[in-house]
Queue: 3 jobs
Job 1
Amino acid sequence: TPMDTYTVHDAIEAAGFGKFQIILSIIGGFAWMADSMEVMLLSLLSPSLACEWGVTPFQQALSTTFVFAGWMISSPCWGRICDVYGRKKGLISASLLGFLFGVVTAFTQSFITFLLARFCVGLAVGGVPQSVTMTAEFLPFFWAIGAATEAGIALAVMPTLGWRWLVGFSSVPLALFALSCWWLPESARFHVAHGKLDEARSTLERVARYNKRQLPDGELVAESERGSTRMSELLHPRHRRTTIQIWIIWVLFGLLYYGITIYTTRLFQSGDECHGGTTPMNTTIEATVNSTEPGITNPGCRHLTADDYLDIVITSFSELPGLFVTMILIETIGRRATFALNFALYSICTAALVVCMTRTWIIAVLFVGRAVMAGAFQTGYIYTAEVYPTTLRALGLGAAGGWARVGSMATPIVAQVLSSYNLIIPAIIYTCGGVLGSITAALLPMETKGRAMK
């Protein structure tokens, strides 16, 4: 009879949410912290590389783009590895490789080897987000904590030990995640997919035991419905408009979220007192690196100061209240309105960066800008998961994440190269991007608040 069998989904529902999921969230948090710290590291390293190796703004942007390129290239490969060999083995391998190449980066002696090492870091950490499939409820908060932690480490390390030690310390969360992964059980769905029903049942019993619950009676069987793996399904007429608009929004996520993170460092490093700098534009600190690129005026070699790092910590912590407020808004005014509001507020903040302001006002504007864009990013995860039917959900999220990488690969050119011509050019581009995001979100064809998932 139907009551004599149950699926992995039935077992997870019976086991409920409890101690097991909380531990999973903490372990997954190390992965998200590692990802976040690598992103923050990209912006914090640029001033030191300009001083030590005389890299141009274009080369600084290239070092950032290489990490995202490796990340984008390897993500589908890691997904395949996890499907074939198991999620646990894939996560341990990815995090250990990320830690290894992170340490290698600290010992590089030229920009070329540095670039290759960062590309390899990107290849490795492309597999770490597979941890999001464990449980995702609390992970965005770990991302915000990781960003602030990276800036805090830089504040303590950079003035005395230098950028190589910062790179090394930034790899530690990957090592912690790799060690923590030994506690993880293998995915029950992976075991079922490979016909290992006994191992799957053992895993599910462990989950139920941690949560002090019981599994359903009967025999564990494979789930009959599988997700689609054809991209064409996302562009079927009934999904096409939604899919195209979601892809536009996710490109903007990568462009605008990572953009304001990198742009913050450029503003502080610039020396332009009108836009966040603390020294006159003609003053150099420690050394001056003259650009050889035609048309680019290098403002000189300027290390970030302790005050700069402290202000970066403050703006990084803005993501925590941004996420809390967003979680309230999406349940009150809905997903589309939250999307549109966050993008609109981001545009207002970046538009304000065009005018001359004191350092205090610059910090306030960056604080709000990062908060609302972090909220928009979180809304994107929720909306994208809800708008597609179950059979397309994983594919929809994966494709959207890929488009975010396209935006993130483009933003170093905007934040680092174009800012070397004029500091307000990135602010104008990010403002236009926020306006486009707000309009696109407001015109989404479906509101998912209160809608039953298909």
Note: Strands lie at 5-6, 219-220.
Job 2
Amino acid sequence: GGGVGGLTLAYALAKCQDVRVDVYEAATRFAEIGAGVGLFWRTQRILTALGLRDAVTALGSQFNDGYVPAFECRKSDQSEGVFIDTMLIKGGLTAVHRAEFHTILINSLSTVPNVGMHTSKRLVSYTQPVDPSAPVELTFADGSSATCDVLIGADGLKSVVRALMMEEMAKKAKREEDAKAFRDCIRARFSGMLVYRAILPSDRLAAINPGHKALRGPLQYLGKNKHIVAYPISKGRFVNVAAFEVHFEDEGIVFPDPWVSKVDARKVAKMFDGWEKEVTDIMSVMSMQEVSRWVVNIVKPLPTYAYGRVAAHAMCPLQGAGAGQAIEDAAVLSAVLSYPGATIKTASKALESYSCIRLPSAKLVTDVSRENSYNSALSVSGKPEISLSDLALRMQKCWEISHGRDDPLKDARRAVNLFGKALTSTS
């Protein structure tokens, strides 16, 4: 896939002179949809190691090593809002326009050799051979085919690669309950969260409120079962807005509507009637913009991220972790696949090492991001109401676990060491 995860991995691998990379994108061109994306410290470390720091910070945000103020959090579902706390996050938040970040990756790929870029290539099936020295065979919807040594699915929540991998594991499972568990990891289900997205021209917001905080930095406006995230992007020319509506009672259902759809912006604005003025000012501008509704879906935790010479898993889309987790995958995968001992015959062990390191880390982020989605909605299931100070402590802890842990480059080294030990024991 040609999104943030796929292109970052392609660039990281292509910097190794003896690795050939082919990127297959289902769409007719390489492009990115969506609005803003947050890049936190762990992601910043990887992008710096890849030599992309200057290109990213040129978009208007800085990378930081220490703890710096990120989101200001407010309780806003009332006429007079209440300050909760300012989240101190390691590295802070580097907020960029997703399409601009995607363009950086595309441009960077044009500078490295050994990369093939293919559009209108929707995967239909793959075949892993019994012979470890034979290639994996790919078949596409247009009737064409290709071969590869390793197949990486960076194709999103509706991943064809993940679905095929889970089905392959299910067919080879010895117990029916295992087969069912593998198949349960294929279909994405509703997280209980809907998000309404828009990009506001900053001058329109400034016209009605010149001192609006969202013109200067990231804000979280919290309320019962709703919250808003807003921050400037594109060197302050726009404000990215994501307004969340939660229905946790429907968590786990198969959502019947399209995942992304256009909606009446005025109806979205009305959902926040009675909130504090900063919010109603945002909604006043948003009501004149094009607004899309995104259904936030998730998949059940996978038992493994790799099977044979195929790897795939779904990202956690909550707490700004989706793009970051994809980039962390790219760092670990590129480390093991560019290791001198990586060959077509040892590729399955390389992917196994990647999975062993990344699976627990990604699951941790998924779990704490899920917890923080409840925090943001002031909706902690089964627990009594808590004070705003206690809420701030819980949110701070979630942000720290998700984005301020150890250097992610250590994960790449741990995966390489694990792979090296596997090669030694085999030989």
Note: The first strand starts at residue 21 and ends at 24.
Job 3
Amino acid sequence: MAEDLMQALVFDVDTKTNTLTQKPVPRELAPNEVLVKVSATGICGTDLHGMKGEFPLKKGGVVMGHEISGVVISVGTKVNHVKPGDRVAIDPNRDCGICCYCTRGKSNFCEILGIKENTGLFLDGGFADYVRVEAVQVHPLPETIDLET
């Protein structure tokens, strides 16, 4: 069925090429995950460096794009701070919460997850119609901020 597929721009690390392709819409959510319909994704210098091979990316193919906003489509059973229909921004970073950096408020340097679990670099990101992320990455937007901002 067409509604089970989405458009996604997949970057191949080996050939350094982007291919617009169809992928299955993520439907199976873990209890702590959220499915977001992407509204806007920024193009960052990190994306450009990654495409040139100057920044580490997941080997093989990855949907890049880590500056993402959108609308929540569905939530896992343990998610209670957002609901379907909410407008959100997505933090691409994931952290362990226990290493010396995370406990000091510098989770962008996380030794356990850090960049290895970054949405849009190692996990599929926002250059697609939908993105599945952990609930801790999703932040509701006030009505005063539009999705492109």
Note: The mean pLDDT is 92.
